[in-house]
Amino acid sequence: AISGPEATPANDGVANLLKYAFGLDPFRPAAGVDLPQVEMAEGLLRLTYHERTGVTDIEYIPELSEDLDSWNSGPEYVTEVGRTGAGTGFDEVTVEALLPEEAVRGFLRVRVTRN
């Protein structure tokens, strides 16, 4: 199927909803630089992604996990540390998360939901 929020018409594993949220063409395979980027910086996990401005039909929710099973959001887990204009209709958003000292590993993602 090529239509609907979960469809992947480019067969790249990136659903239409995510392509809409990040401003990507649903019929072209997404390249790594088009998608959210995660890095480790100064002992913090950092996630950078593009967020549409002026839209009310989707919500971006940065989340942190230590095990890829349970995910947590909110300022006690993930903090927005930067927002700049990234082009017409988009902001580049950067969030950071400080893992608990006892954490062996950590993962960040941005969950996109439809309103």
What does this 3D model show about the protein?
The chain has 115 residues and is mainly β. It contains 1 helix and 6 strands, in the order αββββββ. It has one helix at 16-22; strands spanning 37-41, 44-52, 58-65, 79-87, 90-97, 107-114. The strands form 2 sheets. A 4-stranded antiparallel β-sheet has the order 1-2-5-4, with no helix packed on it. It has a two-stranded antiparallel ribbon with strand order 3-6. The two termini are 23 Å apart.
Short description:
The chain has one helix and six strands, in the order H-E-E-E-E-E-E. It has 115 residues and is mainly beta.
User: What portion of residues belong to β-strands?
Assistant: 35-45%
Rounded to the nearest angstrom, the radius of gyration is: 15 Å
Briefly note the structural class of the backbone: mainly beta
| Cα distance spanning the termini | 23 Å
Unreliably modeled segments:
none
Average the pLDDT over all residues and give the rounded result: 91
- What spatial form do the alpha-carbon principal axes imply? globular
| Biggest sheet descriptor | 4 strands, antiparallel
Tell me roughly what share of residues is in helical segments: under 10%
Specify the number of helices. Answer: 1
What is the H-and-E element order?
A: HEEEEEE
Number of DSSP-assigned strands:
6
Strand order of the largest sheet: 1-2-5-4
